[in-house]
Request: fold
Amino acid sequence: MSDTGLSQIWPAAARRADDGVLSLHGLTAAQLCGSFGSPLYVMDLDEVVTRARTFRDAAARAFSTSTTSVSFAGKAFLSKEIVRLLVGEGLHVDTCTLGEMRIALAGGAVGRSLVLHGNNKSDEEIELAVANDFGKIVVDSADEPERIAAIARRLGKRARVMVRVTTGIHAGGHEYISTAHEDQKFGIPLLPAGAAANDATAASLSMDTVASGPALAVLKDILARSEDLELVGIHSHIGSQIHSADAFIEAAQRVLRLREAFWATDGFVLPEVDLGGGYSVAYLDDDESMDIQTTLDAIADAMRTESQKSGLPMPVVSFEPGRWIVAPAGISVYTVGTVKPVHLSDGSTRTYVSVDGGMSDNIRPALYGADYTAVLANRSGAAETMHARIVGLHCESGDILVHDVELPADVRRGDIVAIPVTGAYGRTMASNYNQALRPAVIAVSSSDNEGSEHMSDAPRLLSEHGEAHVMLRRDTIADLLSLDLG
Ligand code: LLP
Reply:
């Protein structure tokens, strides 16, 4: 049985046979739906591990003479099993809510391997992070050092903190996921009010300007609270789905200027610089796929040059990729219901293919205009194709999963369609809109995947080459009713 080609956006273990049947590790989409219901998120654990290793090793290679650390951004996808797997690969876990912290802890991440972010952290979150000796609590506003210090003192701890700096770099796939320009809620500005951060280049930023900015003042404040706070470094996250190294480089140069200015003013060498996440992935066959080694090499070069200029040693450099690790490891599988041709005023026809999920399990097309593609996953279908739009079952016309895709002209009720690259920000942004039941996440892996050995007692589906089990179960009507105390 030969395979019809699947492009690079699919997991390496995905196959589409001549008869059109899509499988992962020998488990077909139809078998997965037959055993676990429909719709499903399917997460390929081998792919997650491969990508985690690739990122981790690329960072170590790029910064060969200095230390690196990689934290997986749990907001992209989180479950105890993923935490266990990634911690096993030496990754840390970045959390930003009590829920994320609790799942990371329950998954076996401990102490130094945890990061807490958040522009509005609750006392409870800070307490949990301090009590568990998190590696970094990332300060996001000027009043936080005092709050964290008070909690640390009360708990008899010294909290490790970083300062999140907004560098003025505007980058990212969509306005809502761009995070370091001036007019947004995150971080502490590098530059004083009135300094044109968005227009300046790192090289043109004078030490005096940087030294008089809010970020440096917060660093000073933390240093003054050394008894309760250990100042670990500075942090910059500029946005998400960023395609080129340039914006990361500019941001890195700026935070290194701050490091230099702080050395000049306070004689303190900040040990670590965290460059956050934001590394892009390809969603469509024609999208360019970021070569992570090339990107990190370019960032490392620029940082080495900048450090040499300043005469300071290279810092520990850390990263927080979310999407890059898990997005391409996940696919969504749906069952087709209504198929409705709609005649458009330009004379063309668009066929609306309704599936049993929608914006409740993938909000990204509706929220960011994100584009996806899809294939018919249970048979090859007619050679003739139709212009299709894959839509969900929700009561909104914006409930679109795939705007435009060519599908076989005979797609019909009961068929299965699969959408690739849904492993990040799908399940974690899912909702119960229309009281939808959020789909299960099924973990698939090859039989020899070590990760699957210490897994739950959940029922398994086996193939000659692999296995599948429920990683997160589907919501039930009982779940919905249990929340309703009326
Ligand atoms: N670190 C920080 C501080 C972050 O805020 C984020 C993402 C990351 C790391 C991970 O970024 P990544 O490597 O995954 O791009 N829901 C949006 C993405 C929002 C990202 C928010 N912060 C989406 O679906 O595109």
